[in-house]
Structure formats: C-alpha cells, structure tokens
TrEMBL record:
<keyword id="KW-0813">Transport</keyword>
<keyword id="KW-0067">ATP-binding</keyword>
<dbReference type="InterPro" id="IPR027417">
    <property type="entry name" value="P-loop_NTPase"/>
</dbReference>
<dbReference type="InterPro" id="IPR003593">
    <property type="entry name" value="AAA+_ATPase"/>
</dbReference>
<dbReference type="GO" id="GO:0015807">
    <property type="term" value="P:L-amino acid transport"/>
</dbReference>
<dbReference type="GO" id="GO:0015658">
    <property type="term" value="F:branched-chain amino acid transmembrane transporter activity"/>
</dbReference>
<dbReference type="InterPro" id="IPR003439">
    <property type="entry name" value="ABC_transporter-like_ATP-bd"/>
</dbReference>
<dbReference type="InterPro" id="IPR052156">
    <property type="entry name" value="BCAA_Transport_ATP-bd_LivF"/>
</dbReference>
<dbReference type="InterPro" id="IPR017871">
    <property type="entry name" value="ABC_transporter-like_CS"/>
</dbReference>
<keyword id="KW-0547">Nucleotide-binding</keyword>
<dbReference type="Pfam" id="PF00005">
    <property type="entry name" value="ABC_tran"/>
</dbReference>
<dbReference type="GO" id="GO:0016887">
    <property type="term" value="F:ATP hydrolysis activity"/>
</dbReference>
<keyword id="KW-0029">Amino-acid transport</keyword>
<dbReference type="InterPro" id="IPR030660">
    <property type="entry name" value="ABC_branched_ATPase_LivF/BraG"/>
</dbReference>
<feature type="domain" description="ABC transporter">
    <location>
        <begin position="3"/>
        <end position="235"/>
    </location>
</feature>
<comment type="similarity">
    <text>Belongs to the ABC transporter superfamily.</text>
</comment>
<protein>
    <submittedName>
        <fullName>Branched-chain amino acid transport system ATP-binding protein</fullName>
    </submittedName>
</protein>
Length: 236
C-alpha cells in the first residue's frame, strides 16, 4: 500500500474537523474524496502534505510516517499538492512559476526533462511561458498549478478541486490530462465537488460527511449508489 491513513483526527483549536478517518491508496490508483463544503476533504490533503498536524492517528507513505515530517520533507518524499484556488504567483511568468515547483530537485537535466514533459502535457502553457501568470485564464492557471506540482517529480499527486470554476469543456481537458499523468506512473488523490466527473476518472472513492467517511468503494459502484446519486449526482 502506497498511502495509508489510520484513525486520523484533526483539530482546529477546540473544534475537531476529522473524526478518526481511515483510507488507503495503492500505487498507480486514482482515488477521489467526495463531500460537501466543510466535510474535511481539504483538511485531509493538508494533513498528508504536512501543512496540518493531526491530533491523533497516523499517515504512512511508502514506509514513512508522514505525520512526523515537516511540509518540505513531505515534498522530498515525493508528494506534491496542487491547492484549491490554484495559488499561482501572478507577478511571475508561467515558466518562473513552473521552475518554483522544482525547489527540491538538484539535477538540472532532470528539471529540464520534467519541464519539457509538462509543456507536452499542457501545450497552452508552452505558448505562454513568458506571460505573467496573473494574466492567464482560470483554466490556464489550473494547468499551471498542476504543472508546478509535477515539477518535483511526485510519486503521489494531491489535487484539490481542479475543476472549480471551469467551463465543462475545460474540465474535460483537465481530467483527460490527469488520466495521462496517472498513466505515466503518478498515483493521484483527487478532492472534487464534481462527483460525476471524479468518479468517472477515479478507480475508487471515499465519501466524507462532517469529518467522517460514510461510504467507500469502487467508483462504478459509487456511481450507481442511491445515496451518492441523491446527494452528489443530482439524483440523476
């Protein structure tokens, strides 16, 4: 098992937001975490990234106890995150943003190879490499956020709401690229409110409700589950 979260509790001050969740991700999988706003999805990713410290439980990645590591050590362990809201540096160029993602890599040839691969994945970024990131469209900024996350050569990529605010055509393009990234050998954990698109892309899914996992299983089973259909797929 590549990633195992066991009985994870997270508090913000006196408020507990994750109430002992457990989940696992095998190497090569795409696993999606679904749920309404405030369910604890982003907190789960921030805990994996080392940006939020759990109050109880453990996060194990490839034999490492992630819950004991600082955030920069988590990146060095080959986990990277594309955050909700993209958070690109608007006053830097596309290429400068991408290069920032390689801060943990010392091999210049490897950096160049990875950057070429990212431009192959996202030709629009290649066309705009000298453009300021703040002038890009929302979809282009999402591509840039994912590209920047890939620069650290992750074994595990965490994606937080990559479809947020994007037109359906762009969502399809972004999700097709995530499938390509996964096919290249990168394991993906996807937090997403677009439940139908996420379940069509992922191998398995977990449904979070107010800090607890209430359902999990194969994506094809969750797509036909009445509870999931009514709560997240518009009953369709």
């Amino acid at each position: 098992m590549l990633l195992a979260i066991n009985d994870l509790h997270v508090r913000y001050g006196n408020v507990e937001v994750l109430h002992g969740i457990s989940l696992h991700v095998a190497e090569g999988e795409i696993v999606t975490i679904l749920g309404a706003n405030g369910a604890g999805k982003s907190t789960t990713l921030l805990s994996i990234s080392g940006l939020v410290r759990p109050s109880e439980g453990e996060i194990l990645f490839d034999g490492l106890a992630l819950h004991k590591l600082a955030a920069h050590q988590v990146v060095q362990a080959r986990i990277s995150q594309s955050p909700e809201g993209r958070r690109v540096f608007g006053t830097l160029t596309v290429e400068e943003n991408i290069n920032l993602g390689a801060f943990s890599i010392r091999d210049k040839a490897k950096i160049a190879r990875t950057r070429t691969w990212i431009y192959d994945l996202f030709p629009r970024l290649a066309e705009r490499r000298q453009q300021l990131a703040g002038t890009l469209s929302g979809g282009e900024q999402q591509m840039l956020a994912i590209g920047r996350a890939l620069m650290s050569d992750p074994k595990l990529l965490l994606l937080d709401e990559p479809s947020l605010g994007l037109a359906p055509l762009l969502v399809r393009a972004i999700f097709d690229t995530i499938r390509t990234i996964n096919a290249s050998g990168v394991t993906v954990v996807l937090v997403e409110q677009n439940a139908k698109a996420a379940l069509k892309l992922a191998h398995r899914g977990y449904v979070l409700e107010v800090g607890r996992i209430i359902l999990h299983g194969e994506s094809k089973d969750l797509l036909t589950n009445p509870e999931v259909r009514n709560a997240y797929l518009g009953g369709s």
